[in-house]
Amino acid sequence: MTRPNPLSLMGILPSEARAHEIPAGRPLEGYPRIRPRRNRTDGWIREMVAEHHLSTADLIWPVFALDGDNVREEIKSMPGIERLSIDLLTEKIKEAADLGILAVALFPVTPLSLKTDDGREAWNPDNLMCRTIEALKAAVPHIGIITDVALDPYTSHGHDGLLEDGHIVNDATVEVLKKQALVQAEAGADVIAPSDMMDGRIGAIRDYLDHAGYTDVKIMSYAAKYASAFYGPFRDAVGSSGALKGDKKTYQMNPANSDEALREVALDIAEGADMVMVKPGMPYLDVIRRVKDEFRMPTFAYNVSGEYAMLKFAAQAGCLDYDKALMEMLLAFKRAGADGILSYAAVEAARKLA
Ligand code: PBG
């Protein structure tokens, strides 16, 4: 399929179809009549012709929950981000909701003593994740709660699935992910977000939730999730980095591929995903654009921990203006076609937008 050159549609360049309409003697280039800088002379006109805007409603805030009372822990690789016990986290999330943030994504920090080979703490209905969901639902009922489904915070080997003879086994993992999703839905999760990249898990989880009566619980699928070096600080934050044996390349995608991302997204939509996600964000803006253009689904981008850390540390080193770089980065996701952005800087950005 050929597309018309947009410049020729504006009458600036003669396309074959319009060449006869160009008066003889008119210069082919628009200058000096046409000066694109005219629309950039002042703030009001720049804003008036802006194609994309970032709003607080675009921002989803990922947070790290910790057991205990009145406990906060710094995360060295993510300046400004803390692991918080449920009581403190609840206060922070109230503030986020007051700023207009619509949803948070929860990640639990599981103590080593509860990590096992099979990660069975993941489907314990009284685990930290479920207790956090219940507390938040009671204290901040109007904020959306998105919960991660994958085994990595709970396994002693740090993988997202069950490990047998050095392999991550797909179908047996899907069986336990269903149970993990169900305890989260029972605790009150609004959106189940499987981040494990097992094949067939979206359909299996959808059926399992429906069968249990949770037909309104939504699924945000980490549909195109890449085996990325940009997750480093996150694994630090949830304490899975030390544990992780090997890499996740047999289930997360190869960064070289984007046709494959479309196939992954198509499958997850067919299996019942309500929303899809591309992850990481910044190095994969092309994938976001392709997914949005191809499927027209609610499409989210995860501005991951490594992207957050890059900006923070660059700013600390005096290399760039943090606030300006942050807003430029978040706007880039909108330009790429994202409907929303999961970002550790969501609250900082919301404050700037307020
Ligand atoms: C795990 C999971 C990861 C992230 C979200 N869920 C890490 C991984 O796949 O190793 C990464 C988030 C980030 O880096 O901000 N299922």
Describe the model.
By secondary structure, the protein is α/β, with parallel strands linked by helices. The protein is built from 12 helices and 12 strands. The strands form 2 sheets. An 8-stranded parallel barrel has the order 1-4-5-8-9-10-11-12, surrounded by 9 helices. α4 runs parallel beside α5 (170-187), α5 (170-187) packs across α6 (201-211) and α8 (259-270) packs across α9. It is globular and about 80 Å long. The two termini are 44 Å apart.
**Small molecules bound in the structure, each named once:** ligand PBG
Give the class from helix and strand content and strand pairing. Answer: alpha/beta
Named CATH topology of the largest domain: TIM Barrel
Low-pLDDT segments: none
How helical, in percent, are the residues? 25-40%
CATH level 1 class label of the largest domain? Alpha Beta
Residue share in β-strands: 15-25%
Q: Give the CATH architecture of the largest domain.
A: Alpha-Beta Barrel
Number of strands: 12
What is the total domain count?
Answer: 2
